[in-house]
Amino acid sequence: KLTPEKFTNVTNGVTFRRWLGQSNPELSELIKECIGDGFIYNTEELEKFADFAGDKAVLDRLEKIKYNNKVRFANRINDDYGIKVDPSSIFDMQVKRLHEYKRQHLNALHIISDYLKIKANPNMPFTPKTYIFGAKAAPGYHLAKKIIRMILMLAKEIENDPVVRDKIKIVFVENYRVS
After folding, report:
1. Considering the entire predicted model, what is its pTM?
2. pLDDT tens digits, residue range 68-109?
3. Could you give the CA distance from residue 27 to residue 168 in angstroms, rounded to a whole number?
4. Would you call 52 exposed, middle or buried from its count of C-beta atoms within 10 A (0-12, 13-18, 19+)?
5. 151: closest CA among 100, 90, 81, 117?
6. For helices 142-159 and 103-120, angle between their N-to-C axes, nearest 10 degrees
7. Angle 142-144-148 (CA atoms, 0-180°, nearest 5)?
């Protein structure tokens, strides 16, 4: 009440505005160019960006920004892990604590299904996919550790298979640096 010009945000994590500005500066800049910087202080201001949904120039820039970010991330993966990732592939990313009932387990089973389909029909149309996992398991959670091991073994199997390795890539980020 004493300083109404200031804004405060109570959160248990990083505010979306800070996240957007730091993790995706190109997108943040495009939004500022289109609707101004009011969204930094007022989330509802972002609704104005919907007015550009049919603007080809804005959509083209969004596509370029997305691709630039994927290239930047692919370079980071290559620098950190020595794994070459195709930035034009679909990125499917799951970074969270691993539990047997969570999506990482189901996603690994889905990858196995795709792997088997490609092996059975190597010439089938298939959009290349890059699966990026980052997870940790509680020290005593043996099944979660086995799921992580399965994902790593699956990554190795796919990377060693010339029929599949250009269609599916698995990256397990060992330190996903949440901070």
Report:
1. 0.80
2. 999 999 999 999 999 999 999 999 998 877 777 678 889 999
3. 28
4. middle
5. 100
6. 30
7. 115
What are the b/e assignments for 144-158, b being 16+ CB within 10 Å?
A: beebbeebeebbeeb
Residue of 40, 34, 33, 35 whose CA lies nearest to 16: 40
Torsion of CA 151, 85, 15, 58, to 10 degrees: -140
pLDDT tens-digit readout, 113-151:
999 999 999 999 999 999 999 887 778 888 888 999 999
Sort strands 168-172 and 129-134 into parallel, antiparallel or unpaired: parallel
Alpha helices in the chain (DSSP H): 16-23, 25-35, 56-81, 103-120, 142-159
Residue 112 structure tokens: 């196995």
Tell me: pLDDT of 11 over 60: no
Q: Is the pLDDT of residue 178 over 60?
A: no
The candidate with the shortest Cα–Cα distance to 36, out of 24, 48, 26, is 48
Q: Which residue type, as a one-letter code, is found at position 23?
A: S
